[in-house]
Amino acid sequence: MLATSVWRREALELSGRKAHFALEAAVPLALALPLLGGPALVPQATLYTTLIVTTTVLHSGARAHYLIRSGLAQRMARTPASPYKLFLSTVLVRAVIALLRLLPLLLALEWRYQAPPHLWLALLALAAPAMVASELTGGLAGSLARSAGEVWLYSLVLALPALFLSGVFGPETEPLGIQYVIAQILPFTFLHRAVLQLVRPFPGPIPGTSIGPAMWAAVGWVGISLAFLKGRLERDR
């Protein structure tokens, strides 16, 4: 099939590996089972957010590394389609698939903590821009790695500092100073706030009001990635 039809190609691939995808979706849920069985504590939110982001980044990194090393990414780049449209389509479809992969875990969180429906829907909405950022992070890790083993290293080196700057590993209060400014442009910040409210509601920003800023943060990182792509294409001419 034509490589320009990214959505169709991914849908056909997904339909041919349903059992494998189900296993991939079960991994985050299985890792979260010890937390789901424990008391509702704030540190659990830190671990949930870290689990959601790192598993997605690692999966995205492995996927990007495979596409590059197999030559498929290069063949896609040589198609008549606009490379920018191809890039956007790939990021969006992979973010949707990542969200579907995390759906069992997100449903388990709602079942465990019995949060109001609007909090869970806000978590689902805020997970979407976080998945876009995770796919971009994983794509960068996969392109930097020279071997499959290095994908894990680069993925964690890129993801963990971003989580730290998002305030995931700090207190449940807002970050201060320059970290607060940086946190506002990282979609992981808003995802973590939604997870915190789901695990143990506390006074703070309503997650639903963060959907707009989170979406704009994701758009900004996509824009930066497109700028890098443009520079790379111009250098390769």
Molecular structure report:
This protein has helices at residues 6-15, 18-36, 42-70, 72-77, 83-113, 117-144, 148-165, 178-183, 187-199, 211-236. The protein is globular. 78% of the residues lie in helices and 0% in strands. With 237 residues, it is mainly α. It starts with 5 loop residues before the first helix and ends with a helix. Helix 2 (18-36) packs antiparallel against helix 3 (42-70).
Layout of secondary structure:
Blueprint: H1 6-15, H2 18-36, H3 42-70, H4 72-77, H5 83-113, H6 117-144, H7 148-165, H8 178-183, H9 187-199, H10 211-236
Helix pairs in contact: 2-3, 2-5, 3-6, 3-7, 3-9, 5-6, 6-7, 6-9, 6-10, 9-10
How large is the radius of gyration? 18 Å
Spans of 5+ residues with little confidence (pLDDT < 50)? none
Helical segment count? 10
What string gives the helices and strands in order? Answer: HHHHHHHHHH
Task: Tell me how many strands there are.
Answer: 0
Spatial separation of the terminal alpha carbons: 27 Å
Shape: globular
What is the helical fraction, as a range of percent? over 70%
Mean pLDDT: 83
Relative strand content: under 5%
- Please outline the major beta sheet: none
